[in-house]
Amino acid sequence: MSITVSESRFRLDTADTTYLFQKTAFGHLESLHYGRKIPEGDVESLRYKHEIPFGSAVLYDESKDASYCLDELPLEWSGVGKGDFRTAPIEIRMPDGSFTCDFVYDSHRVETGAPKMQTLPQSTGEEAESLIVTLKDAVFPVYVDLIYTVYEKENVIARRAVVRNEAEESVLLNQIMSYSLDLMDRSYTVTTLSGAWIREAHVVERPLRAGALVNESTSHSQHGNNPALALAVQDATEESGDVYGFNLLYSGNHRTTVELGQAGIVRITGGVNPHCFLWELKKGESFETPEAVLTYSCRGKNGMSQNFHAFVQNRVVRGDWQKKERPILINNWEANFFQFRQNSLLRLAQQGKKLGCELFVLDDGWFGARNTDTAGLGDYTVNPKKLPNGLDGLGKRINEKGMQFGLWFEPENVNDDSDLYRAHPDWAIQRPNRKPSLGRHQKLLDLTKREVRDYIVENVTKILDSCPISYVKWDMNRKVSDFLDGAFLHRYLIGYYEVLTRIFRPRQQILFEGCASGGGRFDLGQLCFSQQIWSSDDTDPIERLKIQGGLSLFYPISTMGAHVSLAPHQQTLRNTPLSTRFAVAAFGAFGLELDPKDLTPIERKSLRAMLETYRTIRKTCQFGKFSRVETGNDYTVQWQAQTEKQTVVLRVKTIVPAAQKNDLLEVKGLSPEKMYTLEQVSTPLFVSGFGTLLKHILPVTIRSYSHLLLAVNKYLKMDDYKETYRASGAQFMAGIRLHRSFIGTGYSDKMHMQGDDSAMLFIITEE
Ligand code: GLA
Fold this sequence. Notes:
The chain is α+β, with helices and mostly antiparallel strands.
C-alpha cells in the first residue's frame, strides 16, 4: 500500500520517500514531511511549532486560536486574503466579485490508477494508487480536488489540481497551479535549464535567498527556460545530498515559482503560466491543470535524475518504441538543406547505409513551393520536380536498400506564400486590427479551431498511410504571438495534443521525434507522444556536453536526438575530432547529419567502425542507468551508462593543461568481487591535424602544407593508444590510472596524442 490515511493524516510512500500531511483543526492541509522514507509513528517532531503569540501577523481566527496564522504554516494548498501572503496556487474571482478564498478539507478518497484527464496528456499509472483530497471554499460551493498519484518504484509523486464551480454565478480563474509544496528552508540551490536557440538546457544554479525566483515561459515550453527545476541542499553533489526535482507534463507557457518566505518556509508552485490568463468557469464546469511530477533523492543529483529517467521511460514515453533501441538514422537537412532531387537523396541514403545507418530521414523541402523557408508551409502536395516518384516511390527505394524511411513535417505553421494561406487566411493566429508578427517567415495555425485540426490530421495521416513511413520528425519553428490571452495558449495546447492523439495513437509503430527549432519544446507533455526530441540544432559536441548533460538531469538519454555533423561546426566554427562528435552523440538517440562525401575515405572508414561499435553499446547508452561523474575539473566531463553486464564510460577533455599528469578514470557501480575487462574504443588520429609535429612520429619530414600530407591524410590514419585492463570491480572502482598524454618531450606508442576537445570512450564488460 502506498497510500495510508489515518485519523486526519495522509501518507504517501514510494520505495525511498515519504510524503506526509495532515488536516489542521481549521481544515487546512499542513505539510509535515516530503523527503527520505520514515517509519510510521508519532509525527509531533514534524509539526511546525507556532504556539507563541505573533508580533505582526494576520490571524486566521483569533477568537479560536491566537497562534494560528496561515503565513507561518507549511501548507499543501492555500488561498488568498486569509493571512497567507506567499505565492498563492490559486487566484480566482469568487461569486461575490472578490479574490478572497479559503479552501478547507471537504472529503477524500483513494483510488487505484490515476484519475483520467479530459484534456491533457498524463502519465500511465493503471496500477498506481491515487489520493484525491477535495477542498471546498469556506463560503461558496467552489471546489479544488488535489490529486496525488504515487509511483512507488520510480519514487515519483504526480500532483495536479481540478477546480470545480458549483455556485450559480460564474467564477474567473486568474491563476491555477498544478501543485503547491512547502518545505523547510535548508539553504537550497535552485537549478534550472536555461538558454536560447542552439544553446538549450544549460544548467544554471543559484542560491535561494529571501523572495521569489521564477522559471517561466510565456510561449510554448521554449529554448529559454525548460519547465524542469531542481532544489538541492547546498553541499549536494552528483552522488550525495538531498535533491528535489519538479517537472510538468505540459508543452505550453509554464511557470514554477520558488519562494523563500519570512517564516523560513520554501514554497514551490508550478503549472500553467498565469501570464494573461483568464478562464471563466460557469456553474458545473471544471478546469484541470497539467500533471506535475515531484521526486526526492538523498543520493544527490544523480539519484534525482535516475528517479526521473525511470519515470519517463516507464510512465511517460509510450508506443512500440518506448523501450526499443533507436535506429541509427541519417538526416538529409545539413547535407542538402532545400536543394535535393530523388537521386541525390538515394545517393545519400546509400552512403549512409554503407556507414551502418538504419533509417533515412527526409527533412524539410519535399512539398509545395518549399525551396526556401519563405514558402510552402501548410501545403502537403509532394514537389514532383524533386520527387518524381512521390514519397511512396522514394520510400520503397529506401526500403529496398534495407533502410527504414522517415519524414519531416511542420504542420502547426503556415507561410503567407502557400496554397493553404491563400485559401484560409483566417486559420492563422492573428488579430484582425493589427499587423501580424512573423517568426521564421511563418504564422502559427489556430489549433483551437476544429477545422484546422481536421485539416492537419487528414493531411498528415494521408501521407503516413500512403507510403512506408516508420519515423516522423514533427517540427515547430516559431513562438506564439498575436494571441488573444493566456487561456487561448492553453486551448492551443489542448488542440495540439488532440491532433497528436488522433494521428499517433492509432500508429504506435511510428518512431516519433519532436522538434522546435531544436530543443524548443523539450518537455514531458511532448514526450507523452514523441519518444524522442531533437535536443538542439547545435551539433557541436562541446556544446552538446552542456545541452545533453543539462537535459540528463531530468530526461533519459533515449529521449535526446543527437547527431554527428561536420566540423568546423555550423554555429560555433569549432573544429572537433570525429571521435568526439561520435562519442557524445552516442549518449543519445544517435544519427548522422552530414553528407558522407564531405568526409575523407579514411574518415568514412573510421565512422563505419564507430557505428559498428555503437551497435554493441547502444542499449546501454540509451537505456542503461545513467550517471554524471564528478571529475574535479571543470574542463573534463565524464558520463557513464550501465546495464547489468556492460558499463560505458565517456570522458571528454575540453581544455588540456600543459604538463599533463596521469589521469584517473573513476568508475562507479561495479560489483566489487566480480571480474571485468575494460577496453577503450579506438580513437582515430588524422595526420593533418598534427602539422609540423609529425616530425615526432615520422622518420621523414613532411611539410604541413604539402600535397603529400593532404594525400596521406585522405587514406591513412594512426590510432591513439588504446587502454585495456582486466581487474575486479573493486580494483576498477579504486580508479584507473590512464597512460600519459603527449607533452612535447617525444613520442611513445603508449601515449595519448589528443588535445583539446578530445574524447575517450571505454567499454567495461563483466566476465
Ligand atoms: C528546424 C529544425 C532543423 C530542420 C529545419 C528544417 O530548424 O530544428 O532540424 O529540420 O527546421 O527547416
